[in-house]
């Protein structure tokens, strides 16, 4: 696997002098090509600041960001971002098809190719046939699918997602998580998702980076050893999922990596034993 994203010694401080506020401190990590990684951290810890630095929107105060070996010093052409607030990122006066085509206008892509790519991207997110509608004619979940299609149409080397499912209902959230995993597998995309939702970080990813309270630093980098094929019910009930979810929760509450791993594994065993005894009881009483 080759390295797609390299973040090295990255720090960012807002303001200066007495008003200086360090949002992220000395972050170093890589994301390999084709990997789906999540960054999870407490509210206000500096997740969006980190994402803005990676996207080239905010120059870091210290350290570097490189995308496929090229130093990031502005928004790279082959990077796309999906934000939480779809209603502000889609243009209400443009059709869905035109919204998806929009960023391609600044690329060396012919009009016909723009149309083809947008149609394909809408198909990938399960929205064939709605290209002629306007965003405000669609549900929230469908609008977020349009945002994802727009990001995919530019065929990014790296797709960044900032709390992408935080504004939709729980059922739609599950559907969009599965959609993200499917697209990543089919396209071999490299995706970095920022979230404060522990379960989502584990369910979605190949790997979870856990951040500390502000100023954010990395407290753990956990591989997710769940099968590639995941299911919203059985995966979330599995011992691996329950253990990892507990480990991330403990780390976010200030536990050391060793304490978090041991306690989470004990708690998962207990929870699964409880589940098994519930099943046995219900069988004997029926
Ligand atoms: N433009 C800014 N100027 C000064 N301070 C800022 C600015 N943007 C963010 N901060 C501060 O930096 C810290 C990190 O903010 P950031 O938005 O990156 O965190 P976050 O983890 O994304 O938050 P949330 O979970 O609430 O979305 C916060 O204390 C915030 O108040």
Automatic annotation (TrEMBL):
<dbReference type="Pfam" id="PF00005">
    <property type="entry name" value="ABC_tran"/>
</dbReference>
<keyword id="KW-0067">ATP-binding</keyword>
<keyword id="KW-0813">Transport</keyword>
<dbReference type="InterPro" id="IPR003439">
    <property type="entry name" value="ABC_transporter-like_ATP-bd"/>
</dbReference>
<dbReference type="InterPro" id="IPR017871">
    <property type="entry name" value="ABC_transporter-like_CS"/>
</dbReference>
<feature type="compositionally biased region" description="Polar residues">
    <location>
        <begin position="277"/>
        <end position="286"/>
    </location>
</feature>
<feature type="compositionally biased region" description="Low complexity">
    <location>
        <begin position="258"/>
        <end position="267"/>
    </location>
</feature>
<dbReference type="InterPro" id="IPR050166">
    <property type="entry name" value="ABC_transporter_ATP-bind"/>
</dbReference>
<dbReference type="InterPro" id="IPR027417">
    <property type="entry name" value="P-loop_NTPase"/>
</dbReference>
<feature type="region of interest" description="Disordered">
    <location>
        <begin position="257"/>
        <end position="286"/>
    </location>
</feature>
<dbReference type="GO" id="GO:0005524">
    <property type="term" value="F:ATP binding"/>
</dbReference>
<keyword id="KW-0547">Nucleotide-binding</keyword>
<dbReference type="InterPro" id="IPR003593">
    <property type="entry name" value="AAA+_ATPase"/>
</dbReference>
<protein>
    <submittedName>
        <fullName>NitT/TauT family transport system ATP-binding protein</fullName>
    </submittedName>
</protein>
<dbReference type="GO" id="GO:0016887">
    <property type="term" value="F:ATP hydrolysis activity"/>
</dbReference>
<feature type="domain" description="ABC transporter">
    <location>
        <begin position="5"/>
        <end position="238"/>
    </location>
</feature>
